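We emphasize that the prediction below concerns an isolated chain of 244 residues; any contacts that depend on oligomerization or on bound cofactors are therefore not represented. The input was used exactly as deposited, without trimming of termini.
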Amino acid sequence: MLSFAKLATSRFSRNALVTRTFTKSSVSNSDHLFVHRDTEYNNPNIKFEFTPKNITEAEKILKKYPAHYKKAALIPLLHLAQKQNGFTSIGVMNYIAKFLEIPPMRVYEVATFYTMFNREPVGKYLLQVCGTTICQICGSDQIFEALENRLGIKIGQTTPDNLFTLVEVECACACVNAPVMAINDDYYEDLTPEIAVKLVDSLKSGVVPAPGPQQSRKTCQPASGLTSLTSEPPGPGFMVRSDL
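Result of the prediction step, given as a token string:
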């Protein structure tokens, strides 16, 4: 009979020789840097403060939360600051931390986790094309290609005139109107490569197109046309007894 020591040694030796094979997809590197690096346009010496108008707006936001739990307003205040500054700089993050009386690290954690906070400057028009499954099936790859060719940039880049920044985003939650692109705060849906190019050309000329579906249907109607609610709806009293 093997002693305990010999048995343990035997098991260790056998296990040491066993190899396990793991299968994984290829590494996909993000185009975002999550560790801050000081630059001429983004460093702690460049201070940020809310404008008087945004101070008023920030105070309205704070009133939505308990006085002893101001940190709950972190995300909406970061959005407000980014809208004013153009991107979420280190100065913005430090200011929000001071404004909410929380450690700066708490702000850094949130700003680096959520991709809607732009850690680098973006163009006047932020083109956010959805590249998730449904939009991809409906042609988002061709839309990316058309926009890259028209603007002369790649995904994650900004045009030399700082007018457009092109990024790929995860599900925009408008699958029924795929493919979709958000331009700043507005959604443009039912896109084709030709329509996408037409949109940026319109913005170049200073005309902001009306948001929403860019083809014949309205809102979220079926692409093939209405299949219900096709007749005039009945008026008041429909199916109600005449004596009531």
